[in-house]
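Appendix B, example 12.
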Amino acid sequence: MERAILELLEHRDPAATICPSDAARAVYSGDDDGWRALMEPARRAARRLVTAGEVDITQGGRPVDPAKARGPIRIRRAR
């Protein structure tokens, strides 16, 4: 999942963000909505990447503490 997040960000503008659902869809091999079961694994992968200094998790365009983030999040390259 971490690789999917980093690859998606690599193909976007440096300031762009992605949703965890983008990563979930990228790794899901089915053509139904089974990717939804991968949403929490995608959020956990993003948190691990924050710890590694690779990405930031944002809400409202501002970085947030991943442990305190509730609701929709976005993922961007670390600045």
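The chain is about 40% helix and 15% strand. The chain has a mean pLDDT of 96.
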